[in-house]
Amino acid sequence: MGHSTTTLTFIVLGLGVIPKPSIWADTGPIVTKGSSVTIWCQGSLQASAYSLYKDRGLEPLDTKISQNSSNKASFLIGAMTSSHPGLYQCAYYTTGDILSERSDSLLLVVTGFYGAPSLSAQPGPVVDSGGNVSLSCSSLFTSGPFHLLKEGGAGPPQHMEAEPRIHTGRWLAIFPLGPVSPSRGGSYRCYGSPSSNPNVWSLPSDTLELVVSGSKPQDYTVENLIRMGVAGLVLVVLGMLLFQAQNDTRRTQDAAKM
């Protein structure tokens, strides 16, 4: 009987009768040390309970009974420590105690455990559109991967393994960004982490403002061309008025001499 139940469960899941739940963190997946965060799992109004899993474990980390007229459940982490980062998934039980498939993974990281790295731009923080620029993140405190973020929620973090710099005693990662477009401009920060636990991050670096200036001729928009045309027309009109004024002055002077 148990074998038949297991087989039926996989058949139901395979047919997609039970929707896969979704998972997210209310303050985002990057959490400061000591801060609280709530993980949400959203499934179905028919769900009887929700389970939270960590690092693909077989046993749930926690299980919550579903509340009436709600299709989601929350799991609170009261204060983030170095033991909380990792991959989280959730699933829910529905009619007949059938367990849904697990959600996609949510990677939770914690920041603030090591000294801040330094962030710089080569050849500099101002670059022409279409040019090349690299952002260098270096640290004395962490030798694992570095993580580069653009502030404002523009895309996921970039990750790069660190390399030692013997003459400085620092660890360095270089993030090439070119050729750049204007959308690449903005505020960047980087974090370091140890190789043993790449989801435990350092304090953030100081903000680096990357400015993408100039544009190629083919990048001119119709609006810019109209502005240039209007400006040229204004110059022509002003030239004509000045020429007319000079002629009127000469005529007045000639009439006075006569």
Report the structural category: alpha+beta
Helix content: 10-25%
Strand proportion = 35-45%
Cα Rg: 31 Å
Number of strands: 18
Main sheet summary? 6 strands, mixed
Shape: flat
Number of helices: 2
Query: Topology as H/E string?
Result: HEEEEEEEEEEEEEEEEEEH
Q: List segments where confidence is low: pLDDT < 50 over at least 5 consecutive residues.
A: 1-15, 215-222
Distance between the termini: 125 Å
Mean pLDDT: 85
Describe this structure in words.
The longest helix has 36 residues, at 222-257. The protein is flat. Strands 2, 4, 5, 7, 8 and 9 form a six-stranded mixed β-sheet that branches. The protein is 19% helix and 35% strand. With 258 residues, it is an alpha+beta fold.
Secondary-structure topology with pairs:
Elements: H1 2-14, E1 22-25, E2 30-32, E3 37-42, E4 49-54, E5 62-65, E6 72-77, E7 86-94, E8 98-99, E9 106-111, E10 118-122, E11 126-128, E12 134-139, E13 146-150, E14 158-160, E15 163-165, E16 170-176, E17 186-192, E18 208-213, H2 222-257
Parallel strand pairs: 2-9, 11-18
Antiparallel strand pairs: 1-3, 3-6, 4-5, 4-7, 7-8, 7-9, 10-12, 12-16, 13-14, 13-17, 15-16, 17-18
